[in-house]
Amino acid sequence: MILVTGGAGFIGSNFVLEWLAGGGEPVVNLDKLTYAGNLANLASLEGDVRHRFVHGDIGDRDLVERLLAEHGVRAIVHFAAESHVDRSIHGPEDFVATNVVGTFRLLEAARKHWGGLTGRDRDAFRFLHVSTDEVYGSLGPQDPAFAEANQYQPNSPYSASKAASDHLVRSYHHTYGLPVVTTNCSNNYGPFQFPEKLIPLVIHNALAGKPLPIYGDGMQIRDWLYVGDHCAAIRRALAAGVPGEVYNIGGNSEKPNLEVVQTLCAILDDERPRADGGPYADQITYVTDRPGHDRRYAIDARKIARDLGWQPAETFATGIRRTVRWYLDHQDWVANVTSGAYREWVQKHYA
Hints:
The chain is an alpha/beta fold and 351 residues long. It has helices at residues 10-21, 61-71, 85-90, 92-115, 119-124, 157-176, 198-207, 227-240, 257-271, 302-308, 316-329, 331-337, 340-350, and strands at residues 2-5, 27-31, 51-55, 75-78, 126-132, 180-185, 187-189, 212-215, 221-226, 246-249, 254-256, 284-287.
């Protein structure tokens, strides 16, 4: 079996669903079910004996050790993290607790488990750590994209906590020999993304007739990666990644935030026209930029293409339309996650 942490969250749940659909071995899914963890993401697996959900914290070392031993886990895929920059600005302590301390305790449990394995089981064990391009800092307009050898320059409490976790993972390989693989991905989008992030937030607000908030001038550039492509890359890195190596995963789709929002508006104009016949772009509203907002991220994904043979299957044009259609077809899911607490959060951050 494999242990997936954070497997009820956005990327984690997509990975679990695709892993099992692709014939992967059974999954033990450990998730704390904070605001962004949602068992509804996994509803299609109800009754599936290949999936065991455990409500728990990666920081509970006794629980993790018991799960690893009880299920003879041969790999850990570590998604669990606090992951939103805005929330880290207002509440950084949770990010340190989960991303740094939680990862440390997970590593300790993994080291104990791996230390007790022998022969092929010991050789085959992997700890795959899922991280972000934000650890590298911000790029200028003409700077080359982030490569695996780039210096870490995190600029938010979120990215700093992920950078710390990356360093811990690296140290456990070099100090103890733990067979770790780290992946650093660009901005993900797709089904089941909590609507605090740009793309689902814009879709939700557009349909509700609300303002579509754009930080600053909207020219912050991100490399956009469809979540299904990310999951395929993780599967490949788990199968063939070299212990101790880092692999950057990107979508080859650099876009300014404003262009992303305008694209979403155009798709919605086509797929779900406004009742008054007006364009959704009329709802675009510029708001004060957030503190320390990184200007540009871009991923150089040539290493994973060269060494592991992975390339994204989706272009931004195909992936974004699939994403909009998913949200249009799953408005019940959106309604269930956009509670009063969510509305208060939006007011706090975008007013």
